[in-house]
Amino acid sequence: QVQLEESGGGLVQPGGSLRLSCAASGNIFSTYFLNWYRQAPGKRRELVAWISTGGSTTYADSVKGRFTISRDNAKNTVFLQMNSLKPEDTAVYYCNSGATWGKGTQVTVSS
Fold it and tell me: Of 7, 44, 56, 107, which one has the greatest count of Cβ atoms within 10 A?
């Protein structure tokens, strides 16, 4: 059973940066799309970014130009670099691949 584990969340001031990581226990990264979702309190879970097996990326309009998704297939890890963070980016961020989800990591943007 493949498992995903996120890390790197925390409290940051508006305008700051964080880098999230998602490590997989199994070798799925070379064959699956990888996604980052987020869910804010009282809101639906939304897709933030995804990356294809070939490295093509797509972003939600709300994070375009500020967030960057990348993957390291050799290390079975996907990253989400988040810059120019805003209070509205506050959410639990989840890594997803196919039917597999991580437990999430909290990101709080506040002064």
Answer: 107
